[in-house]
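User: Please predict the structure of the protein below. I'd like the answer in structure-token form so I can feed it into my own downstream comparison script.

Assistant: Understood. Taking the following sequence of 195 residues as input:
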Amino acid sequence: MSNVGVATTTKPRTTTLRKDAQLRQDRLLQAAVELYATDGMDVPLEKVAERAGVSRPTLYRNFPDREALSLAVLKVHMNELTDQIAQWQGHDDAFFLAIRMLAAKTINSGGFQKMASVHRRAPAYGLEFRAFTEQILTEPLERAKAVGLVRKDFKLSDVNRAILMIAGGGFDSYGDDVNQAIECALELFIRGLAP
């Protein structure tokens, strides 16, 4: 019997890497996460391969281009945030804890200096992260609104602006105590959002 004209649904094949190949891929990803944090997305791929202790062909077998590597790095950060928010489940202030965490990550990774380059080089990276933060912060924001910590008119689409505002407040420290500067900016933000 022919399948012509019949739609079939098959699951995509998932490839399981050999243990040694998985270790190399993990080392590449860890090296990229570290180097993106210190050198930005424009870090030479040779440097990523060198840090991971693999050849460039091995890097390209695992991540065919910079965009694939960048999206893998983004997923590492997304997973970290997802895990952290899961730990805060049930906390009325989880929304503010997440905003603080993301603001600190923005400053510690030199996010402001890298934003224009990221937007120009890989706009999908920023759009995917924005969509992710809005998705992952939906429940914490709704909880904060329900208990009266956040005004009802604060929109989910403003979350990324809030993160950048708090991170920007961290620059007030001029290298002294970034965490304290973030706390001050967060406190102003919280007072501004109060009903």
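That's the full token string. Residues 170 and 179 are 7 Å apart (CA to CA).
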